[in-house]
From TrEMBL:
Residues 3-37 form the FAD dependent oxidoreductase domain. Pfam families: DAO (PF01266). Residues 437-457 are annotated as: Disordered. SUPFAM superfamilies: FAD/NAD(P)-binding domain. This is FAD-dependent oxidoreductase. It comes from the Bacteria.
Length: 457
């Protein structure tokens, strides 16, 4: 059995520790924040200041890999997640009646919940594992190195104590200090591929009234204007978030932090207006997040691993702008792979680096491509000129065959070129267009003049 030190107690770190512990490995998890998600989810979510985790209060939709990994590795944890209010939403629920089942359809499920609920159930499960020790309020300050080429990490220094390990897992997030430690120790530098995302997010949380309506019925989750996107995130325990996305350079961005302005703007989009018309109770101020990038940090280069005894996972490995919701899904997939192959990874990390490049890196590339397109569109405020691409998106909400392909891409089950590139999907989109000869790409949100009229001068 391996001795593993995990740096970071977020979703990826907790998932890694849990899956390793359930296989009998000895794990010590180090998290510098002394506070942990507990029984009072609303207090933890709405009143816990977490400057190192700005995404914690932003809305989440957890994609299929989160559900499938938890159901495979820890079904009791998944049951606890549902018991605490998380809800399943199958992509075919849009149609009311599901089409005839095909293999894989059972995985096209989103978990609707706040991040704090997932953190709470993972924390509770990790604390129950007899071979896992969780050290909260304990900051890792350095790595210990042994001999070898490449150099081998043999443990971590946490506060004043040196902790030995066969493998160290860096799950400390997008601001990980580990790359700098490696360079300072004389290792070759990690290979970093970084792309700035010029996109800003503003959200506000609401709670549905106990004596009021709880569902606006068949309403899409998102709407769009040429310069902005709007979305609603139904969540656990009658909470939901309204989210606005626009370019970081948009001159109206600052004014949207005013709750009245934010709500007026959100009401100009059909998707979010339908939920605000339920007369929910606001739970927060307007919460902003920007300054994000897509960053891949590889601890291997063309000459092989730059260090042994150490791998990275979660945002330390791949940090993505949250528009596609990849973060937790990719993090738990990496955690599962580490737990399954820990002995081989501890002996030689090259197989892990090869796996991440093959299994996770393509989704990083998809996010980079999507963000470039979104940033350009939001900045230029220009509609798409690709009629068939627009038809593909619209057709999914009328045709289960196309919806299935959309869901397979969304849930990281197939790349877009495979899911959409079948003769069947092509026939269905062609028939959909033939029945709508006047179809053209268009937005359902406000015009720029309408938007500007909502914003105080």
């Amino acid at each position: 059995m391996a001795r593993v030190a995990v740096i970071g107690g977020g979703i990826s770190g907790l998932g890694t520790a849990l899956m390793l512990g359930r296989r009998g490995h000895t794990v010590t998890l180090f998290e510098q924040d002394a506070r942990q998600a507990g029984e009072d989810l609303n207090r933890d979510f709405f009143h816990w200041d977490r400057p190192r985790v700005p995404q914690a209060v932003q809305p989440h939709s957890f994609l299929a890999p989160v559900r499938t990994v938890l159901r495979t590795e820890a079904p009791d944890v998944y049951a606890d997640l549902l018991a605490r209010g998380a809800r399943e939403y199958h992509d075919f629920d849009w149609f009311g009646e599901h089409p005839p089942h095909r293999a894989g359809d059972e995985d096209l499920v989103t978990l609707r919940t706040r991040r704090i609920v997932l953190e709470a159930v993972l924390t509770a499960a990790v604390r129950r594992e007899r071979t896992v020790e969780m050290r909260r309020g304990c900051r890792v300050r350095a790595l210990a190195f042994g001999e070898g080429r490449p150099a081998r990490v043999t443990g971590v220094q946490a506060d004043a104590e040196m902790h030995q390990a066969d493998l160290v897992v860096d799950a400390s997030g997008r601001r990980s200090p580990v790359p700098a430690w490696l360079i300072a120790a004389g290792c070759r530098p990690p290979v970093v591929d970084s792309h700035r995302a010029g996109i800003a997010y503003l959200c506000r949380w609401y709670r549905l009234r106990a004596d009021g309506p709880h569902d606006p019925r068949r309403v899409k989750a998102g709407s769009a204007a040429p310069f902005a996107l709007a979305g609603v995130f139904p969540s656990d325990n009658d909470t939901f978030a309204v989210n606005l996305v626009l370019s970081t350079g948009d001159p109206t961005r600052g004014a949207l932090t005013d709750p009245a302005v934010f709500e007026a703007a959100a009401r100009s989009f059909p998707a979010t207006a339908a939920w605000l018309d339920l007369d929910p109770e606001p739970q927060t101020a307007v919460l902003a997040m920007a300054g994000l990038d897509n960053r891949w940090t590889a601890l291997a280069d063309d000459d092989g691993p730059i260090v042994a005894g150490l791998v990275n996972a979660g945002d330390s490995l791949v940090h993505t702008n949250p528009t596609l919701g990849h973060g937790a899904a990719l993090g738990l997939r990496a955690a599962q792979h580490i737990a399954t192959h820990v002995d081989q990874i501890a002996a030689d990390p090259n197989g892990y680096h090869t796996w991440t490049a093959q299994a996770l890196r393509p989704w990083f590339g998809a996010q980079v491509t999507a963000d470039r397109a979104n940033e350009q569109r939001l900045t230029e405020s220009s509609p798409s000129s690709d009629r068939r691409a627009a038809a593909l998106a619209a057709c999914a909400f009328d045709d289960p065959v196309v919806m299935r392909a959309r869901a397979q891409v969304r849930h990281l089950l197939q790349p877009a070129e495979d899911a959409y590139g079948t003769d069947e999907v092509d026939r269905h989109v062609t028939a959909w267009l033939a029945a709508r000869p006047d179809f053209s790409p268009q937005h359902d949100g406000p015009t720029r003049d309408q938007w500007d009229a909502l914003i105080p001068g």
